[in-house]
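Before the break, one more example. Copy the sequence into your notebook; we will annotate it together after we see the structure.
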Amino acid sequence: MSKIEHSTALLESTDALLENTKVATDEYAEPLKIVVTRFPFSSSYGGEEGHTMEIASFYRSQGAHVEFWGSCKVLRKLFKENNYKFSNRWLSKPPVTLLRLVWFSLISPMLFLKGGWDVGRLKLKHGQQLRMYMLSFTEKLIYGPWLWLFGVKSIWVEHARMGNWFHKNLWKLGYKFWSKRSNVTVVTVSELMKKEMKMAWVKVITNAIDGRRFKKIKDASTLPLEMRRAFAKKNFDIGFVGRFSEDKGMKLILEIAEKIPEAGFICCGDGDYKKKLDKAEIDNMWLDKKLVPCFMQNIDLLVLPATKTDPFGLVVLEAMHAGTPVLLTDKCGVAYHLEDRKEAFICKPEDFVDRCLEIVENRDMIKNVSKNLDVAVSRFSYDEMLESYWKVVI
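Here is what the structure looks like once it is written out:
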């Protein structure tokens, strides 16, 4: 054997040894310790909480140890119900109102010291495997400097609408500074949200859902009797699923129902506008989450008439997976990823009533969009979304 051949053989054997060592190291490596944090202004179940639990479940399926650390009652309950470790912790509510801003600023030195204590404890407990999955403005401001100091990789996930509470907030300067550090990845759920954040370094991981439970044909007899009676009233049913609030466009639904009496309206959810819906004799009720797929399959059109920014609008994907076209406004993040009149009906809030009337009067528009729904939802890959969230923590 020549010297060159001998050297080549030696290199190949060394590479093989290194590869085997890597495999062995990976096999016995300590699992990641992912701590989800949330210290919200208020707690209620919504898309953010559901999305967080899906990501947590995926992290756990990849072998990571996931736990909750914070004051959010909803997430604490969900983590407990799903057999995750959880810790009830205190940190000031986020400075998103004038009163909270003043209070937060006054106690910020004490909060900063507490932040160091919290992060130090977590770092001491979990070591190099610690990762932070952070949801609220509060902990990003308070923990941010300490995470950089201790070299802890963190993911700042933004689900909330970016209004004056963020853009005119003095603490935004601190947020921007620490969010640019090399240990931080800022993630949001749509191109619209990135545009509203006005930060070029923000990463978009488009929301997606596991559509299998919406595609599977459901028996309409499982729906509540009240809802089945509502379906029997008209031959064209328009549905809404969400919070009965002004920002979700409930005023527009009241206006549409008055102008299009030939269509039936069924609203699923709860909120401040319930009494007004009752007064207008618009069918509305609370629907168990398990029955939402069946509801989606039995309506002709889902509407999401948001008048203020809706970061994404997961109900749109739910309806599309169920084979039901959607009329939504360009205030919804998902609208930036769909084509008007081909994959959905998209318009400005001020044009919503006219567009709805046009659809009801021309049912062929429904058929044309329905043909493209499978192709449209295939772009919102659930598996790719989960994989993207894994890549930002490893």
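The two ends are 44 Å apart (CA to CA). Residues 82 and 382 are 21 Å apart (CA to CA). Try to locate both features in your own notes.
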